[in-house]
Known about the structure:
By secondary structure, this protein is an alpha/beta fold. The protein is built from 15 helices and eleven strands. The protein starts with a helix and ends in a 7-residue tail after the last strand.
Amino acid sequence: xxxxxxxxxxxxxxxxxxxxxxxxxxxxxxxxxxxxxxxxxxxxxxxxxxxxxxxxxxxxxxxxxxxxxxxxxxxxxxxxxxxxxxxxxxxxxxxxxxxxxxxxxxxxxxxxxxxxxxxxxxxxxxxxxxxxxxxxxxxxxxxxxxxxxxxxxxxxxxxxxxxxxxxxxxxxxxxxxxxxxxxxxxxxxxxxxxxxxxxxxxxxxxxxxxxxxxxxxxxxxxxxxxxxxxxxxxxxxxxxxxxxxxxxxxxxxxxxxxxxxxxxxxxxxxxxxxxxxxxxxxxxxxxxxxxxxxxxxxxxxxxxxxxxxxxxxxxxxxxxxxxxxxxxxxxxxxxxxxxxxxxxxxxxxxxxxxxxxxxxxxxxxxxxxxxxxxxxxxxxxxxxxxxxxxxxxxxxxxxxxxxxxxxxxxxxxxxxxxxxxxxxx
Length: 425
């Protein structure tokens, strides 16, 4: 009993000491030093609205991105409304001033291809205001914050300089495509005289593909060795599509089967959100992305829309190398990563939530009393604290201490973020 009591007392003391270390206050003198540096290097941004008249505040990007080929725009979470607005304004500026005509999302490679085709030549009888839902997750198209950008995309389609949209993920992402997915697959097989009866497990599950990414559901449908048989059949379909004439459609379907197989394998093999799962997915997203950069959109300037963590240009964990690290290794300084961070977010009642811990740099950013600003980390001296190890909540609101300049090139700060506002259909 005494041993248990002693162990409890020791654990309480340890917790108290740790709390004092982790949550100690930053001294006022140190705060002022850090604040002066942020004020020196920040570049104020006037607005995050795509409708804002004027662009002088964004002209800094002309020099920052002078030699850029691939720009990655992150987001702390997928549900940050003001971040969606800011990225929308950046895309419009980059398209109209710096010749960025390609935007690729962290969305299904095939789904986004279908979406872009439909935007170019509507023939699927999808409501015009839902076309983006063929390829994108709802938070990137079905919100009030995203709507102006979706309308801008459509507007450019009728211009001499249209924006081409795509995706690079292995996941199924287009909810509007859900009811049409199996028909499109069957039409492709029939068109190319591929007998679905030669792929019995695939034929049995062709209407259930999205549900099969839930392992518990897959276990009910696929008995015995049928999971492995399904993966093998999808690999055979991939090879069959590869053997067809190299038209854009046939090439895409071959890649679609490849993504489909890996998406199911990931769902069945790894725990969702685990580092091995992240590693598997990011390596494949990087492969899809580099293929598109080098082949589909060769010699084009490209914007990548994804979460902050996928932009990271350095190893995150011993078992996880983010997609951004693959991109940085291949394209070097021709790739630039901008990640988004905030001090807090307003909830539906207008109250502030998700404030950072006491040591996070976002507290210093907040002290600048600047609603929005950009910092180009590449041009900051190595002796600046911004080039050294510091705490930030830039990864999903979690207080983490890293040398963040190794992970991204620029910070876009939004003091008070907002929640997305879904558009109810």
